[in-house]
């Protein structure tokens, strides 16, 4: 036979676990909310490095247009090396791809000169 004291003890234990679950759920959801709010909105948490565009040349080689602060760099990346190819003098503005117009070309003469110069350096190495 189940006594009234046994029922009240199990009800009390169930009540404690339910309240503990609610408190843990509130703590977890509060931590998620604060993490999301911390990463966006505040000027001190603004990212200083942005990858503006990436073009893959082959499976293990890519060109990246990277903005660091106010400077824009064109870098080449492989599996084993990252190389600065050019520092762009003028700011690069990339239009949205949904407007139907082609993206403006990068300053090709500076990049081509630097690229050909770096190719010549690679050919001279044994």
Helices, by number, come to: 2
* Main pleated-sheet profile: 4 strands, antiparallel
Instruction: Provide the β-strand percentage band.
Output: 25-35%
H-E string: HEEEEH
> What is the typical, i.e. mean, pLDDT?
78
Number of domains: 2
Structural class call reads alpha+beta
Distance between the termini: 92 Å
Biggest sheet strand line-up: 1-2-3-4
Helix percentage range: 40-55%
Low-pLDDT runs:
none
The rough form would be described as rod-shaped
Number of extended strands: 4
Radius of gyration: 29 Å
Structure notes:
The chain has helices at 4-39, 108-124; strands at 49-58, 61-68, 71-78, 82-88. Strand 3 (71-78) and strand 4 (82-88) form a beta hairpin. 1% of the residues are buried. The model has no long low-confidence stretch (mean pLDDT 78). The chain folds into 2 domains: 4-44; 47-124, no CATH class. Helices cover 42% and strands 26% of the residues. With 126 residues, the chain is of the alpha+beta class. Strands 1-2-3-4 form a 4-stranded antiparallel sheet, with helices on one face. The longest helix is centred in the N-terminal third of the chain and has 36 residues, at 4-39.
């Amino acid at each position: 036979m189940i006594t009234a004291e046994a029922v009240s003890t199990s009800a009390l234990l169930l009540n404690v676990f339910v309240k503990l679950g609610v408190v843990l759920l509130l703590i977890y959801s509060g931590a998620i909310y604060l993490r999301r709010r911390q990463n966006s909105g505040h000027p001190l948490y603004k990212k200083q490095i942005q990858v503006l565009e990436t073009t893959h040349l082959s499976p293990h080689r890519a060109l990246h247009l990277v903005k660091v602060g106010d400077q824009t760099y064109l870098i080449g990346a492989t599996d084993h090396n990252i190389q600065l190819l050019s520092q762009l003098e003028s700011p690069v503005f990339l239009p949205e791809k949904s407007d139907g117009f082609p993206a403006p070309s990068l300053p090709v003469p500076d990049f081509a000169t630097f690229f050909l110069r770096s190719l010549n350096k690679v050919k001279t190495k044994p």
